[in-house]
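[recover] target loaded
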């Protein structure tokens, strides 16, 4: 049965143009991908006998999914790295689709993503970034864990590119402190009170996210009576976490490491 709610038309149209027109999947590929989520398309019938065009297959398969699964499915396609007959859409299109999908739920991540797109060889960050966004409503546990992983990876990448030593076993708070100091954005590196206050607040948010992950996410087992986080908790973690992520990335880009 088709979903009672649907994504905005501009989102569906962009996704269809990206994955089922000049670029994107073949008819058999689309049937194979959607078969993992719904039986609405049935077996592939080929092009003869009045079969659906690729864009019709895509629209029909997408509409058959519940709204939040539609979002998760499109996020997965944005990160797809398997065979695709007609080629992947452009990075600009992929970022546009991500931004539209994020607009109503995780605006902090949408803004922060602009900086990430400018960096090369940050695949580990991009992978955990995408995982956090994909799981916000479908897997709040995983979204909180992925948000912390994203921040840890960002801090390590910054340290690597600035030749600052760290240990893999360090917790998020220590990694953040080290990366922040390398870019001169630690509270104790500033004298103006309002700047110190804001930077101290950022460090407090990072510590809170680490605690939230430990208490609510899937990083640790739970007893019978333990309640998991709700989507609102995941949105809080993702939006605050990615606000910090964006700040770190923007600072890293705008304040290059000084020559030794």
């Amino acid at each position: 049965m088709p979903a009672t709610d649907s994504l905005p038309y501009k989102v569906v149209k962009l996704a269809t143009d990206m994955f089922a027109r000049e670029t994107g999947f073949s008819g058999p590929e689309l049937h194979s991908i959607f078969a993992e989520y719904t039986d609405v398309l049935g077996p592939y019938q080929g092009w003869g006998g009045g079969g659906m065009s690729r864009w019709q297959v895509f629209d029909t398969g997408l509409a058959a999914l519940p709204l939040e699964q539609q979002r998760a499915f499109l996020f997965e396609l944005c990160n797809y790295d398997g065979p695709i007959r007609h080629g992947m859409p452009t990075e600009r299109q992929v970022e546009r689709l991500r931004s539209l999908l994020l607009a109503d739920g995780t605006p902090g991540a949408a803004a922060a993503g602009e900086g990430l797109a400018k960096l090369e060889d940050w695949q580990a960050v991009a992978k955990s970034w995408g995982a956090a966004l994909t799981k916000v409503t479908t897997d709040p546990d995983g979204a909180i864990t992925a948000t912390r992983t994203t921040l840890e990876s960002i801090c390590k990448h910054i340290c690597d590119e600035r030749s600052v030593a760290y240990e893999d076993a360090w917790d998020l708070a220590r990694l953040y402190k080290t990366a922040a100091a390398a870019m001169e954005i630690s509270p104790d590196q500033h004298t103006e009170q309002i700047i110190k206050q804001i930077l101290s607040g950022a460090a407090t948010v990072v510590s809170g996210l680490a605690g939230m992950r430990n208490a609510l996410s899937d990083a640790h087992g739970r007893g019978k009576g333990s309640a998991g986080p709700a989507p609102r908790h995941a949105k809080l973690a993702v939006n605050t976490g990615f606000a910090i992520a964006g700040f770190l990335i923007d600072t890293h880009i705008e304040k290059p490491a000084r020559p030794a």
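[recover] notes: The longest helix spans residues 193-216.
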